[in-house]
Structures are given as structure tokens and as C-alpha cells.
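Minutes, structural biology subgroup

Action item carried over from last meeting: produce the C-alpha cell record for Helix-turn-helix domain-containing protein (Streptomyces jumonjinensis). EB confirmed the sequence was re-checked against the source entry. Recorded below for completeness.
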Amino acid sequence: MTQEQLAERADLSVDVVRKLEQGRRKTARLSSINALARALDTEPSYLVGQPSTFETSSETANGLPSVLALRQAVSPVDELLGGEPDPEDPPSIQDLQAALRSTERIRREGRMGEIGVLLPQLVRDARAAAHAYTGRDRAAAHSVLTVAYQVAATTLTALGKEDAAFTAMERAMAAIQLSDDPNLETLSASTLAWVFTKQGRLDDAERIALARADQIEPGFRSDPEDLALWGILLLRAATAAARQERHGTVQDLLRRAKGAAHAMGRDLTIYATPFGPTNTGIAEVNFLVEMEKSPEAVRAARAVTNLGALPATWRARFHVDRALAYTDLGKDRMAERALLRAEEDAPEWMRYHSTTRRLIADLRERAPRRDALVLGLADRLGLMK
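Output recorded by EB:
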């Protein structure tokens, strides 16, 4: 295709396509990236140069993170061949649940390398326990296994392995049927919607999230956890709508989510996913950035308080959104400072986050040659090679 043909098929301006191809522009709205991916029949992760494997560092010296090991844990060949049962005794339910809590904490902090080391063994242990135990212990093991599969799905998606992530979600949905946690089906719908969003399957993402939200819609006197689960689904659907530039739908879903957050009166984190007044505030900033309303995004960001209630990766994403808004307004120095705040919160997460990498590459090209701040950021993200 010519640039003109691609622009027409993606419903974008030729100028945007030309600047992206010639490297004169490193960043693009996620709605534009999804439009280009559809026009080229590929995944958005392929277009943005998303990291496809784990980094190794001193923090993961006790073992090397491995995409292959995670694939093997999610899709073991022994189950296809009817292999022998594990000769070792499975871990206790208490040990499994403790391992899951530890993995969830690491995930909230964005320590991807450690997840790559620990998660394959957690999946294998939980599956062994689910096969070996009976009664309540079997149901509890399936609950751990469900969440482990979902963490595997989000991890694989972050590395651009969306098809493997979908396999993990299929296995999670099967494990739910034998689990003892009634909230896991909602959690799975949220995770699957996120996986579909990253794949560029935006209609499917919105449909999955809203279908489950309709099923669990709470009342005015519902428990905070029920309101949080419902609100999480609304924000997932709003993200998919934002990337389809359906701004009216985004505003309606955000309004409903804010109502749930207001009724809660505080922030909750459920299986590493936060919801409450703070998270709806940073979601609004994200949507305003995506809708190219940068002045409104900057104003909304100033109104967000209590950031400490959110996991480190959510705080980092908020600061990246601030940086995107400042960059759009031509305030590169303020964008760089926002990125430094993000790095303080989740330095390893930033190295895997494709939007951050593209933004810093763009800032580096525009910055004076001796701008130590942006050059330092680029160097720490491995963008100086």
C-alpha cells in the first residue's frame, strides 16, 4: 500500500502516516495505533515495538525469567500425553496462597523479571494441588490456579504474546468452575477484556466487560467490594471505547464508575486491581489524554489526590499520562519531570511499557544534545544503543 492508501484504510491523515514512517514522529494515540493495526491486519503490540521477552538483572539472579517456561507452565505437554502424576507431594493450600500473595505484591510493583521467575512454578504447583486434593482444598487450589493463570495472561500480553495469553485465560475460565471464590468470574472478565484490548479486539473487549457488568450490577447499598468489581468492568469497557473514539460512551461509563467510587468512599485493591475515587480520577486523565484533550487532562491530574492508595504501577501510568499531556502542549521539561516521577514508582515496569519508551524516544530527539535529564531516562530504558 502507498501511504495514501494506508491512511485511507485506517481513516487517518496522510501526514500522520508519513511522519510515523519517516521517524519524524515517535508517538501516536492508541486509537490511531489500533486503526493502523486493523488496516495492516496485525497486533498493536507489533507496531509499537513492544518488548517480547524478559530482561535479566541482578534482582533475578536466583533464576532466569523465561517466556518459554511460562508457556510450558500454561500449556504443559504432559496433559496432552497423559503423563505420570507429579512424584512430589503438592504444596499445602496455605503455602500456595502465600505464594500467590507474594506474586501479586510483586506484580503490583511492576517487577516483571521476578514474575517471570516465580510464576511458572506457581502455576505448576497450583495445578498439582488441584489434581491431588479433594473437597474444600481442591476448590481452594483451583482458586489459586485461576488467579495464577490470569497473572500469566497479563504477563504474556505485556510481552506481546496475546495468543498465549488467551490460552491462559481459557484455562482460567475452566478452573473457575471448580473454585471457591465467587468473584473470580468477574475478575476473569476484566482480565479477558484487557487482553482483547491489547490485541486490538476492541468490540470484543467492551462486550465482555459490559456483559459481566450487567450481570453483577450492584444496588445502592451493596458492599464496597461489589461496587469495586462493577466499577473495574466499567473502566475496562471505557478503555476499549476510548480507543474506538466513542467519546460519548466513554463519558457515560466514567460517570457511572465515578458514582460507584463515590458510594464506596475509599479505594480498594482486589487481586492487584484498584478501584475507588483515586483510580477513577486517574482513569479520567487517561481518557482525556486519549481523546486529545490535553489542557483538560492536566487540570484533571491536579485534582487527583491520595495517589499513595494505588499500586506503584498505577501511579506510574498516571505520571506517564501527565507526561503525554504536557508533551502535547509543548511543555517537554514538565513531561520529563513527570516521567521521572513514574520512574521513581515503577522503574522496571517502565522498561516494558511501550508508550513510555516511544515517548522518551520522541523527547530525546527533540531535546538539546546535552539534556542530561532526558538522556538519562533514555539510557536507563535502553534507548541509547
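Discussion: The two ends are 31 Å apart (CA to CA).
Next step: EB to file the record with the rest of the batch.
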